[in-house]
Amino acid sequence: MAMGSGKKLQGKIADPSLAFEGEKPYSWAYRNMPALVKTIESYGDARPLKGRTIAMCLHVTKETSVLAMGLKKLGASLYLSAANPLTTQDEIAAYLSSKGIKVFAWRGESSGEYFDCIRSILREKPDIVMDDGGDAHVTLHEEFPDNKIIGGTEETTTGVTRLKALSRDGRLGYPVIAVNNAYTKFLFDNRYGTGQSTFDGLLRATSLLMTGKKVVVSGYGWVGKGIAKRARGFDAHVIVTEVDPLKALEAHMDGFEVMPMSKASEIGDVFITATGQISVIRGEHLEMMKDGAILANAGHFDVEISVKYLEQNSTSKRSVRQFVEEYQLKNGKRLYLIGKGRIVNLVAAEGHPPEVMMMSFSNQLLSAVYISENYHNLENKVYDVPEKIDKRVAKNALEAIGISIDEVTEEQRRYASDWRV
Ligand code: ADE
Predict the structure, then answer these.
(1) C-alpha of residue 351 to centroid of ligand 1, in Å
(2) What is the predicted pLDDT for the residue at 342?
(3) Which atom of ligand 1 sits closest to the CA of residue 343?
(4) Exposed site from 97, 193, 217, 391, fewest CB < 10 Å?
């Protein structure tokens, strides 16, 4: 493990010599994230984040490297830790370190090391915390009461839910922008990003055919919708489980079979959780599953599938492929858990593709600048991304893809603002 010295911590990564390798995925992501590049370049030589220190707790991927380099170009000092112990791309960590970003992340951190890395970035007295999942925000609230944070951002549904709970309790210590709630984030990243990258992870891990399989998708939020849609694209038989009657009805109307997990567990071949909830697939379900069933989680935390039950109630456990563990239950059936039940698209693949992350991370970058410029006028609440930013990101993305659209005419503007026909 390479550790820097000096008063300010320089970071802790697996292997600095990977920096040369890391430049290639960085460049690949850069050329495939034109809307983010355009946003960064729109500032020219201005440095709206000059003097700001940002603690970033994001998955350390090639896409994150483009965001980090952009924030640096805008003048910020950056400290980066991972948003999950198993998702860091070590060559990217090395590349960013070689560019002067203080990175505390490596693939395969223990849970203790993971939180130590988060503490390391928070100790540097950041002005802004940029988080994915809420662990940095929560650690900051619990362990760093003496901070100078002017605001934060949050990338994902799970993190926004946690921050809203903090806010409801009157304990949120600074304004937070819920990047997750921007249309240009959840419509594309949560739905198409997760939809594609979940199968990317599942296929890399298993190398099995999805066509004709009974694929059970738990949760029909934006993530579940994307996964179900992609599963249908493989000509799988898709079953949705839900607890929300509206979403369950929507899944039915979208043409999917809907049933409780107690029933789905008996017939599914592949199970993918995407609920953000705890214990969605429990012991009683695992016991009912067919021999050979495959279990994967696409939610942020590794709590959706009861891994503890598998650990405590199996007669044997062995690794059968990279990212695939076989558990044999006492009833003799073998179940295959992908990526230890952690977020499958980032553990067994590379996460969402750059073309969706360019929108999510444009929102992150613009929200950081917005906080830097407007924090005096913000309360300690969870805010949506300002509509102006959301629209700007959509416009940039359309332009990057090469799509032009119509403009509202003067007659239409009048028509829309007047109730008389
Ligand atoms: N979350 C999901 N996919 C990601 C990616 N490619 N980079 C960073 N965070 C992500």
Answers:
(1) 5
(2) 96
(3) 2
(4) 391
Atom of ligand 1 nearest to the CA of 350: 6
The residue contributing the CA closest to ligand 1 atom 8 is 59
Coil/strand/helix, residue 237: strand
Per-residue pLDDT reduced to its tens digit, 15-74: 999 999 999 999 999 999 999 999 999 999 999 999 999 999 999 999 999 999 999 999
Q: What is the DSSP letter of 281?
A: B
Query: Closest ligand 1 atom, CA of 61?
Result: 7
Sorted by where each starts, the structural domains of the chain and their CATH numbers stand as 2-185+352-400 (3.40.50.1480), 194-347 (3.40.50.720)
pTM: 0.94
Residues 315, 261, 306, 200: what is their CA dihedral angle, to the nearest 10 degrees?
100
- Which of 56, 61, 180, 356 to mutate to test ligand 1, by most ligand atoms within 8 A of the CB atom? 61
Q: What is the pLDDT of residue 5?
A: 42
**Residue 96 DSSP SS3:** helix
Q: Which residues of the chain have pLDDT under 70?
A: 1-9, 421
- As a whole number of angstroms, the distance between CA 197 and CA 208 comes to 16
